[in-house]
Design goal:
168 residues, mainly alpha, 7 helices, 0% strand
Length: 168
């Protein structure tokens, strides 16, 4: 019964999908596949349609409208979301681990260094004037303070970096 229905409806579905697909901007094969799926669901829940050709035409138009609505709502990405500058998942994981190690070391710094380094590492890309205002220190002392903090940070990170890399 189902095989006869599919054999009978195949030419009609191909013609209807080809006629409707152009207007929706979809491929006729995609539209056909959606209608075949809908037919299978209909057969499972309600049995064969009473008027198969009429049902098929309505299903094609319905799927066509659904496809048009979906296409209207979809927004293209500016860039490919998975193409994160071409780095592999391993490289991204290692970079995230290095960032965590850096921020952990920054939190262990003495005095004002954690807040100064956090301001320097901020994604807001603050100027020296903004950082000095935020920390309540003079802009002229920011450079020497930054040098001292970087020296402390270097000493904290040196053992971690040395143990991670194989030497020789």
């Amino acid at each position: 019964m189902t095989h006869d229905l599919v054999t009978t409806l195949r030419p009609l579905l191909t013609a209807e999908a080809s006629a409707e697909a152009h207007a929706t901007g979809t491929e006729p094969g995609d539209l056909e596949q959606a209608v075949w799926l809908r037919l299978l669901e209909h057969l499972e829940t309600q049995g064969p349609p009473l008027d198969p050709p009429g049902w098929l035409r309505r299903a094609v138009r319905s799927e066509s409208r659904r496809s048009r609505r979906t296409t209207r709502r979809e927004q293209p990405y500016d860039t490919e979301p998975a193409a994160d500058d071409g780095r592999t998942p391993e490289e991204l994981t290692l970079a995230a681990a290095r960032r965590r190690a850096l921020y952990d070391a920054v939190r262990r710094l003495p005095g004002r260094c954690p807040s100064l380094m956090a301001a320097l590492l901020s994604p807001r890309d603050l100027t020296y004037r903004e950082i000095a205002g935020e920390l309540g220190i003079s802009q002229g002392s920011l450079g020497p303070e930054r040098s001292r903090c970087l020296g402390c940070l270097r000493r904290l990170l040196t053992p971690e970096v040395a143990t991670r890399r194989a030497r020789g």
